[in-house]
Amino acid sequence: MIWHLFLALTAFMQLAHASRTAPALATIVFPRTVDNTTYDFIIAGGGISGLTVADRLTEDPSVKVLVIEAGPFDRDEPGVLVPGEYFPVPYLWIPLPSTPQTALNGRSFNIPAGKVVGGGSVVNAMVFLRPGREELRDWERLGAKGWDWDSLLPYYKKASLSMLDENSTAPDPEFARRANFSYVDDVHGHSGPVQVSFPNFYYPASGNWFEAAVSSGISVSGDPSDGNARGVIFFPSVTDHTTRTRSHARLNHYTGVQPRANYHLLASHTVSKVLFDKHKKAIGVGYLPTQGGESRTARATKEVLLASGALHTPQILQLSGIGPKALLDKLNITVIADLPGVGANFHDQPSLLIPYNVTNNIEPNLGSLSDPAYDAEARRLYDEQKTGPYVITRGLSTNLALPSLREVTANWKSIIAAARRADFDKYLPPDTHPTVRAGYKLQRELTLSQLETDGTPVHMLSWNTDAEARIYFLRPLSRGTIAINSTDPLAHPLIDFQTLVDPIDMELMLTALLKNRELMAQRSMAVLGPREGSPFGEGVTDAEKLKAILRGVVEPSSAHSCCTAAMMRKELGGVVDEEMRVYGVMGLRVVDTSYWPMVLTSAPTATAYASGEKIADGIKRVYRLGEFGGGK
Ligand SMILES: Cc1cc2nc3c(=O)[nH]c(=O)nc-3n(C[C@H](O)[C@H](O)[C@H](O)COP(=O)(O)OP(=O)(O)OC[C@H]3O[C@@H](n4cnc5c(N)ncnc54)[C@H](O)[C@@H]3O)c2cc1C
Ligand SMILES: *[C@@H]1O[C@H](CO)[C@@H](O)[C@H](O)[C@H]1NC(C)=O
Ligand SMILES: *[C@@H]1O[C@H](CO)[C@@H](O)[C@H](O)[C@H]1NC(C)=O
Ligand SMILES: *[C@@H]1O[C@H](CO)[C@@H](O)[C@H](O)[C@H]1NC(C)=O
Ligand SMILES: *[C@@H]1O[C@H](CO)[C@@H](O)[C@H](O)[C@H]1NC(C)=O
Ligand SMILES: *[C@@H]1O[C@H](CO)[C@@H](O)[C@H](O)[C@H]1NC(C)=O
Ligand SMILES: *[C@@H]1O[C@H](CO)[C@@H](O)[C@H](O)[C@H]1NC(C)=O
């Protein structure tokens, strides 16, 4: 989830290279140390997945692991740590442009993605959600065997600690009742490194919105961590309960771990390719300073693990000769494995901001912070008592609504019927390989069946208690591509979302806008006098006019990119097997959100941590390292 942060981007570009000042207990290394060290595992990318896996593997002191991360260390800035100061800009890939989006009036976008030790966890909005059972069941149907809810739940629990009061027992029942959250202790983590808590403050108007969401027909969720992703929720956040600060992967899987001489981290260096021996076994990586400079190599005796995120992992694969043959040929890259699925099946969750003038709002609300006196008081409350507006991620409120398609529109049957009738093949990128098409066909059927039943959400609605409602379209049918355009590892790949290219996606996007209107018109919201701002406005009701507006304002990303090296059968365009091993080579896995077969309706963080736990456990089992075996 993001909020509009790009206005200030250029002004902060010069801050993008902070120095290595973090007090680390694991070992920060420099290239000369890498030169004379032989590693067991090299991990490309030090984000959520990379650091989770590195931490768990190095629990065995005999295992030497190197993580190479393109970004720098953060410096514990308030913009990173304090939710109410949330400002991720210095630690993003800037610029990271998309290609012009044909269904969005040819607009191009800056794509938000973390470039820092800790990856997305350092810059994200800290929303902590798990997916629903049906979504993971469908992952299995696509070939991700062993990745269903029951298999993942132990790892969701192992990954985190839900801190609800100081003794991590049940939340304060009176606050939970007023804030509308229920909590099933059983499904939560009680000892993991990732700290998760509920804000101990909310703006009163968010309660009006909650009530309106419910009266507009969206069901109230139970505990959203229990495998049912649908409903109206007061959501948990990835913050430490005691300090009310962000719990990110650099803290919870690197700085915080015991001093470990076997856990090396090389920051501000970019992995350029995977190196293979003549048996196509991965033996190391090439890398260079992110700012440019001399290329070097690092050696791995056991495996190379790719964790560079769904935008960059396919780039590394393609640069290494693993990808669609036609693309590799065009750039004269020697083909190691012809895998048409590398960089295909790319999706994210389009989002839409609807501006509001709330003419009779309840004070305080998010807008109150623009009053310096209120802001100072709020900050003092945070510093002294760890409560108040600063415990909430700046720009968000505390409630979200995730309705099913039936709850969004009475027309759900006809939309699904139209989607089933459609000649969808023509909306895939023209050079899509037949195996990828076959995989997409199955994905589409599974997605439509999910939308047809009442369990899986289609959208996520929110209102920030002030001038913005934001909608996230969770289940897009369109699929894009990531493709290198150069053999230069520091050049950006071509990132093409193909947002709303499938016309059914436009129909679904429109239902979200109309549902938001219905919600805002409920009595408990209507009393606040919300007026839809330009380019919308309640007076604009013609569907074609609204679609035309949407083309001009929808954004392709919620920073939830995934699925570009999918865990599916090879004949469905898959890139990795259920152990995340890349088809056609040895000693190489993809361990980040690239492996997801389909996007989940929940924000990715909880699942990225859990799958890092699961894959580390699997690797330890294979090599008989340290402790392994189910989560706790
Ligand atoms: C602004 C923003 C807001 C978000 N809000 C939320 C939210 O509220 N809730 C939620 O659940 N999710 C949110 N997300 C998404 C979430 O953070 C990501 O989905 C998650 O971090 C993905 O984990 P990952 O391990 O796949 O990759 P990442 O955590 O992105 O890590 C990948 C790392 O690899 C590095 N890298 C890339 N290329 C190379 C290379 N060639 N060599 C070396 N290193 C490389 C990158 O710099 C990065 O640090 C948000 C993301 C952003 C950017
Ligand atoms: C590698 O080189 C570094 C710096 O030159 C040195 O400190 C270290 O002891 C060397 N390690 C090995 C294993 O030789
Ligand atoms: C937490 O445990 C400590 C020590 O047992 C106790 O003093 C404290 O009151 C407990 N806090 C709550 C909220 O129960
Ligand atoms: C909780 O739900 C009730 C009933 O819908 C509503 O009146 C109240 O304002 C909500 N509180 C919050 C914090 O959402
Ligand atoms: C690929 O190699 C051919 C033949 O050597 C050459 O003509 C062409 O320019 C090369 N293309 C690229 C993109 O380097
Ligand atoms: C919001 O509406 C009020 C009352 O109609 C009006 O006075 C004010 O100018 C509006 N503000 C904006 C930003 O449009
Ligand atoms: C892709 O590469 C070609 C050849 O180097 C270049 O002309 C073109 O501008 C590049 N496209 C983009 C979008 O970077």
From TrEMBL:
GO biological process: secondary metabolite biosynthetic process
Cofactor: FAD
The keyword Transit peptide is assigned to this record: no
UniProt keyword list: FAD, Flavoprotein, Signal
Record-listed FAD binding positions: 116, 124-127, 271
MF annotations from Gene Ontology: flavin adenine dinucleotide binding; oxidoreductase activity, acting on CH-OH group of donors
Domain Glucose-methanol-choline oxidoreductase N-terminal, residue spans: 309-323
Pfam families in UniProt: GMC_oxred_C (PF05199), GMC_oxred_N (PF00732)
Residues of the signal peptide: 1-18
Claim: Signal is one of the keywords in the record: yes
Highest taxon in the source lineage: Eukaryota
Coiled-coil zones: none
Family from the record: Belongs to the GMC oxidoreductase family.
The name this protein goes by in its record: Oxygen-dependent choline dehydrogenase
Annotated organism of origin: Achaetomium macrosporum
